[in-house]
Amino acid sequence: MFAIRIHGRGGQGVVTAAEMLSQAAFLEGKFAQAVPSFGSERTGAPVVAYCRIADCMLRGREPVARPDALIIQDPTLRFLPEVFEGMPVGGYLLVNSARPLAELGIGDRLAGLRRSRVASLDASRIARSHLGRPLPNTALLGGFAALSGVLSLDSIAEAFRQRFDDTVAEANVRAAFEAYRLVAAQRHGREQLRGHRVLRAQTARP
Questions:
Q1: Per the database record, which ranges form the Pyruvate/ketoisovalerate oxidoreductase catalytic domain (predicted)?
Q2: CA 77 to CA 60: how far, in whole Å?
């Protein structure tokens, strides 16, 4: 089973994001469930939603205590202690921010994570560009596809098309594709840098 926890604020489409991840998983022939939190959902209040993806039937619907992936839709939530709770070594982290992760003041939270599995993405800017408003959820799903490889971008795009009418769906698809390219470029750059470091280390040996 692969578990995803999404943190955001009311009005950012947190629950919708979990539902569309679940739908994308169904399209790939997997079992999935989307579970919303039951706290305050007023605009601006912290909201959490969960998505589980598996190759067999899922029965439990309890909150995800140990997520394999964490998506933070609102960067102001990054200092809340519960946001990173249960995050395992080797997990994936995607933060909606125009700033690099190194500048977000969460270095202690990143210490146990692989660099290839963490990324920041200015999803609000991408959404504003394609949708006309800074609703980051669908762009972040495109970034998640690039970061984790758990679901394909095509499946996520098809989930948008099943959820929204044509014009809105295609705008969200474009946002997701741009986000995918940006996160994939981040990962590619890190892999190149790692390769250069390994090469330098090898050539420096006597």
A1: 10-180
A2: 27
Distance CA 180, CA 148 (A): 11
List the chain domain ranges: 2-203
Domain 2-203 fold: Pyruvate-ferredoxin Oxidoreductase; domain 3 (3.40.920)
pLDDT, tens digit (0-9, with 9 covering 90-100), for 43-72: 778 899 999 999 999 887 888 999 999 999
pLDDT in tens, 173-197: 999 999 999 999 988 766 544 443 4
Q: How many CA atoms lie within 13 A of 24 on its CB side?
A: 27
Give whole-number Cα distances, 202 to 18, 69, 90, 190, 199, in Å.
44, 33, 26, 18, 5
**Is pTM beyond 0.85 here?**
yes
Determine phi and psi for 31, rounding to 5 degrees. Answer: -90, 145
